[in-house]
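lol ok so funny story. i was supposed to be doing the assay writeup but got distracted and ended up predicting the structure for this chain instead. priorities right. anyway since i did it might as well share w the group, maybe its usefull for someone
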Amino acid sequence: MNQTTPPDAYDRHVLARMADFFTLDGLPWPRRLWDIGSLLALEELHEAGAWERQHVLSTAAVDWQRGELSRIVGPDVGLGAKDLRREVTALLKSPLPDPSPARRRLLELIHHARPGYMRRWATAAALPEADRPRPERLARMVAAHLLDLGYDATYLLNWAEGLSRRDATATGVLDAAVALDEAPPKGFAVLAAFASSPEQSIAQKQSAWLDAREVSAWLTARGHSPAGLRGGGGFLFHVVARDPYGAAAQVRLLLDRLVARSSYLRSARDGIKPHERMWVDGHPTAIPIASPARGADLVSLVKEEHLYQVDGTRSLIDDALELAAPINRGAVGPAVAGAWAAVESLLSHPDDPRPEGAGKAVAADRLAAIIACAWPRAELTALAHHHRPVPPDALAQEIKSCTTNRDRSHVVAAALVDGHSLVFAKKKTQAARVDSDRAAMERMRAVLAEPRKSLAEATKTFTIAMRRLYRMRNIVLHGGSTQSVAMDAALRIAAPLLGAGLDRLTHGLLTEGIEPLALAARAEIALQLVNGETGLSVVDLLGPRLGPARTSP
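and the output, tada:
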């Protein structure tokens, strides 16, 4: 695809945000993808009917899910402009029990909506400037849909970066996305070698088994070096996936099952040990066996110097952090169960009101409020550190003179309210980050212009993500299954948000001694009072009430 003109700000915004959404390592949580696509959400609702019939999910939980989904899919142009959208929204107005005619109709509508979904978004992106979707929404919907299809984030990041190098316009990006949407899954051969394989005589009876000599020959024939491999043999798995990284991800799950089984051996308790790399036939480089971290980061443990502080006392936070530890790289079941256990232990109370069938969902709502309140400060702080004009301007000098991130955030917020634009590094190697920063600056302008509206929308998005995690926990623990259609997506979305929430809860307890439930109450009140008669700024939503900062919007 050749572009004859450089992309404009709209195009760069779309590409930068899509690259953000596909970045797995090192991206701060405020810039990650916060939701799943509409089609997967409809599939999840269809599936929920079966879990409701088995009493794994309550009727109240499924009704809440249906109500929120109705609000989300209404403006989704990928669901059509008239007939299709009308049928979907009409179905979502009433319960969809299993079995029922309405639930069967929902499944048929999903089948009708899937073909052409991305083409409808491509048509919208090609409209005149005044009519096309906002770049943030376009990027979110396209990225979520491609991830939900099963494309691996690493593959999609390489794809997006390639489009960026060719200066693709938004229309070009959508044309490329249509091609991905319509491409069928493919078969892949993936070699997983073992450093240790006890009871190898059993493995040799499997048709996929390769001994050490065959492993070496397979690698050499495909231009890979077998150096460093020691005689454990391996399996040549055949899987169907969207891309090589997705094929490797499937094999990781198979290896997890093998490792889990080998842990039950009476001898050789260390069990099966896969080699640190695997190889996908036709892919030029080896792919790590270790799965990428899901992005739950707690920076306060380092900033407050508590990473190594483990004495004889334990707090609720200590227990919660241990419970949630599998969220980054653990298997799906322990990750979901441990993450929700941490949330519930910190943010529920025996005296909480219990609406019929709501269970402990109030803990999800409280965490969502905390995350929403943390969002503006986190983004404004990053923008303050990235504002680097050459030579330094007055704003840069004022930021440099600040001694706290609170003050820096207030200075940046005031500048944005006054209509100033920040200037970010222009090194060629940082072009993608510059566009990401610019997109973040525009989001913060919107928050500062209408803080209650913007924060209410963010809170709702975070609530949906956290309640989805709660539903997944019930499916794992009460349904005994990790096979929900939205299980992987739920973890992908929830992990960075959970990390952000736990980080704020940890910071509050370490620096101020404020308990989790008290911090949640502070967040809930702040969302109602922001930008009102008390003068509460978006910068100070989670902090104790203090005097005004040096500069305040």
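The longest strand covers residues 186-196. DSSP finds 22 helices and five strands in the chain.
back to the writeup now i swear
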